[in-house]
C-alpha cells in the first residue's frame, strides 16, 4: 500500500529505473516549504527549494521566507505592537509617569525601517539554515513541464531544468484584487503596506477579512483616519458574536465602518507620497452610490492560491477550478502519487503558518523516516490581532449549532475588565470570553473564544487543553492564576440562557479590581 502511495509500485511495474537530480524538490520558500525541506535534508535526502516572488503591481518584492515573515504575521504583529504602545503611553500618565504635555507623535519611516531590518535578518537566517543543511536553494520561478521535471526561470530570464522523485507544492497565496477600474494602478494590498516608504495618511480599507481588520486597527492605533468598507459581514468563518464585538470596539476607538457598500472605481486626483484618490462605491442594497477621498486605499478582500501558472496541468495535478485550491488526502498527497501539497493552497484546510510548518515537518518524516503521524487540522488555535485581540480554538457558535443542534449545546460566557485597564479606566465591559460545550459528550469543550489583551498567549493554553479532550468539569476544577485574563474561563460564569451584557458588577471578584484575600 505504501509503495502504491509513493508511486514506487508504478515505477516497478512499468520498469522505470530513471535516476533523478533530487530526491525532493519543494516549490515555495514559505514557512511550510522551508520546514519540509530542512526536515527532509536532516533525514539524508538531496533537496532543492525554489522560491520566487512575482512583483506586486506596485513593484514590491521580498526575500526568502514567504508571506508570514515578509508581508504577513511578523510585520503585522510588530505594527500591531506599535499601536498598543501608543495606548500604553496614554495609560502611563494614569500610572504616575510624567510625560511631556505635548502630543506624542509617531514616525512611520522609523517604524518601517526597524520592522524591515528585522525581516531582513530573518531572510538571511533562512538562507543560512538551508545552506547549513545542504539544501540547494535557487531564487527562480518553477513550472512543471512533466510530472517529474520542472523548468526554473530566474529574474534575468535564464532557464534551468531539474528532476526529482517527489515534489511538494507550497506556493501559498497572494492578495486578491477587485477587477475594477483603478484597483491595480492606485490601490495597495498587504503585500505593499509593510514596506510603504511614507505614512499612508487617510486610509480606506476595503474588505472585512482578518487582514482588513488587523491593518485597519493598527493604522487607526497610529493615529490615522481609517474607514473600513464592508460588503456583508465581518470575519467570515469566525464566530459572528465575537467578530461583531471586535468590530464594535474598533468603531468605539475611531475606526469608521462603511457597511453594505462595494467599490466600483478608484481614480487618482493627485499624485504624491501619499497622493489623493477618489473612490466611488455602490450600495449592495440598492442603486445608491457614494464618493470619498483618501490618501491610500488598501484592498483586503481575500487571497488566491498561487497554483494557476506553475504547470500543474502538465503534471496531471487536479485543482479546484473555482478557487485554485488543491485537493489532497489525509497524507497531503495529490491525485499524482509523487506530488504532495501543504499550506494555504490546500482545499478546506487552515491557512495558518504553524499549520503549514507542522504539516511540512510531519510529511517529510512520513516520506523519509518511516513515521506515521499526520497533521491534525482539528482544534487549531488562532488569533486575530485586532486592537482588542480575538483568540479562538475549535468551532464557532454558528458551526457548532449546525453540527450538533442548539438543544445539544451549552454556551458559557463572561464579560470581564482586565486589571491593567482599570486604573486608566478604559474599555470597561468590552472584553469577553465564551466556551461552547457539547452536552451529548460529557460537556466537552468544542469551541473557545476570547476577546481581550494577549489573546494569543491566553488561547494557546486552552488549545492544548482542547487537544486533550477538555470538559467543562475539568475547567471548573482547575485553579486559575490571579489576577490574569486567562482565569476568566476558570470561574463561575453565565449560561447561554443569561446572555452577556450584564453589568460587570455581576462578575466574580477575580475579574474585577478587588484585592485578593
TrEMBL record:
Could you give one GO CC term from the UniProt record? Answer: mitochondrion
Question: Which EC numbers characterise this protein's activity in its record?
Answer: 1.8.1.9
Binding, FAD:
77, 344
- Can you tell me which residues bind NAD(+)? 207-214, 302
Molecular functions per Gene Ontology: flavin adenine dinucleotide binding; glutathione-disulfide reductase (NADPH) activity; thioredoxin-disulfide reductase (NADPH) activity
Could you give the cofactor binding note from the entry? Binds 1 FAD per subunit.
Q: Which cofactor does it need?
A: FAD
Question: Which residues of this protein are catalytic?
Answer: 482 (proton acceptor)
Any one GO biological process: cell redox homeostasis
Cystine connections: 68-73
Residues of the FAD/NAD(P)-binding domain: 22-360
The segment(s) forming the Pyridine nucleotide-disulphide oxidoreductase dimerisation domain are: 380-488
**Keywords recorded for this protein, A-Z:** Disulfide bond, FAD, Flavoprotein, NAD, NADP, Nucleotide-binding, Oxidoreductase, Redox-active center, Selenocysteine
Record's InterPro entries? FAD/NAD-bd_sf, FAD/NAD-binding_dom, FAD/NAD-linked_Rdtase_dimer_sf, GSHR/TRXR-like, Pyr_nuc-diS_OxRdtase, Pyr_nucl-diS_OxRdtase_dimer, Pyr_OxRdtase_I_AS, Thioredoxin/glutathione_Rdtase
Q: Which EC class is this protein assigned?
A: oxidoreductase
Can the keyword Oxidoreductase be found in this entry's annotation?
yes
SUPFAM superfamilies assigned: FAD/NAD(P)-binding domain, FAD/NAD-linked reductases, dimerisation (C-terminal) domain
Q: Which family does it belong to?
A: Belongs to the class-I pyridine nucleotide-disulfide oxidoreductase family.
Q: What is this protein called?
A: thioredoxin-disulfide reductase (NADPH)
Annotated source species:
Oncorhynchus kisutch
User: Which gene specifies this protein's sequence?
Assistant: TXNRD3
Amino acid at each position: 500500500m505504501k509503495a502504491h502511495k509513493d508511486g514506487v509500485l508504478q515505477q516497478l511495474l512499468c520498469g522505470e529505473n530513471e535516476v533523478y537530480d533530487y530526491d525532493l524538490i519543494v516549490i515555495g520558500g514559505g514557512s511550510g516549504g522551508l520546514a519540509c525541506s530542512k526536515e527532509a535534508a536532516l533525514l539524508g535526502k538531496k533537496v532543492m527549494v525554489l522560491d520566487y516572488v512575482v512583483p506586486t503591481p506596485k513593484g514590491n518584492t521580498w526575500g526568502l521566507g514567504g508571506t508570514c515573515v515578509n508581508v504577513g504575521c511578523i510585520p503585522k504583529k510588530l505594527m500591531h505592537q506599535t499601536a498598543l504602545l501608543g495606548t500604553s503611553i496614554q495609560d502611563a500618565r494614569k500610572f504616575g509617569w510624567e510625560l511631556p504635555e505635548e502630543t506624542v507623535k509617531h514616525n512611520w519611516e522609523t517604524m518601517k525601517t526597524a520592522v524591515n531590518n528585522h525581516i531582513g535578518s530573518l531572510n538571511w537566517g533562512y538562507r543560512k539554515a538551508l545552506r547549513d543543511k545542504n539544501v540547494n536553494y535557487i531564487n527562480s520561478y518553477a513550472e512543471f513541464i512533466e510530472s517529474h521535471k520542472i523548468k526554473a526561470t530566474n529574474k534575468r530570464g535564464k532557464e534551468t531544468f531539474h528532476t526529482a522523485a517527489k515534489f511538494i507544492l507550497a506556493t501559498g497565496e497572494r492578495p486578491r484584487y477587485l477587477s475594477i477600474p483603478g484597483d491595480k494602478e492606485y490601490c495597495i494590498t498587504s503585500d505593499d503596506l509593510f514596506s510603504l516608504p511614507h505614512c499612508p495618511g487617510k486610509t480606506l480599507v476595503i474588505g472585512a477579512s482578518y487582514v482588513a481588520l488587523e491593518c485597519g486597527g493598527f493604522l487607526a492605533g497610529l493615529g490615522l483616519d481609517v474607514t473600513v468598507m464592508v460588503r456583508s459581514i465581518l470575519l467570515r468563518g469566525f464566530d459572528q458574536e465575537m467578530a461583531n464585538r471586535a468590530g464594535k470596539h474598533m468603531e468605539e476607538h475611531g475606526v469608521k465602518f462603511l457597511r453594505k457598500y462595494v467599490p466600483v472605481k478608484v481614480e487618482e486626483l493627485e499624485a504624491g507620497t501619499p497622493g489623493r484618490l477618489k473612490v466611488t462605491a455602490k450600495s449592495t442594497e440598492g442603486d445608491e452610490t457614494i464618493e470619498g477621498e483618501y490618501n491610500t486605499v488598501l484592498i483586503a478582500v481575500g487571497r488566491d492560491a498561487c497554483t494557476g501558472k506553475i504547470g500543474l496541468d502538465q503534471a496531471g495535478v487536479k485543482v479546484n477550478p473555482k478557487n485554485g485550491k488543491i485537493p489532497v488526502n489525509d497524507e497531503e498527497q495529490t491525485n499524482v502519487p509523487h506530488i504532495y501539497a501543504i499550506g494555504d493552497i490546500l482545499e478546506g484546510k487552515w491557512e495558518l503558518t504553524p499549520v503549514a510548518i507542522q504539516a511540512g515537518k510531519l510529511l517529510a518524516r512520513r516520506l523519509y523516516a518511516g513515521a506515521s503521524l499526520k497533521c491534525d487540522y482539528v482544534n487549531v488555535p488562532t488569533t486575530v490581532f485586532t486592537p482588542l485581540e480575538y483568540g479562538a480554538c475549535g468551532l464557532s457558535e454558528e458551526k457548532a449549532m449546525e453540527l450538533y443542534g442548539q438543544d445539544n449545546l451549552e454556551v458559557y460566557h463572561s464579560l470581564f475588565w482586565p486589571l491593567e485597564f482599570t486604573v486608566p479606566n478604559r474599555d470597561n465591559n468590552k472584553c469577553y470570553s465564551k466556551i461552547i460545550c457539547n452536552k451529548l459528550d460529557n460537556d466537552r469543550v468544542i469551541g473557545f473564544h476570547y476577546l481581550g489583551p494577549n489573546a494569543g498567549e491566553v488561547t494557546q493554553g486552552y488549545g492544548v487543553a482542547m487537544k486533550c479532550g477538555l470538559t467543562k468539569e475539568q475547567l471548573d476544577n482547575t485553579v486559575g492564576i490571579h489576577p490574569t485574563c486567562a482565569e476568566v474561563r476558570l470561574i463561575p460564569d453565565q449560561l447561554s440562557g443569561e446572555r452577556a451584557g450584564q453589568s460587570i458588577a455581576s462578575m466574580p471578584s477575580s475579574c474585577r479590581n478587588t484585592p485578593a484575600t
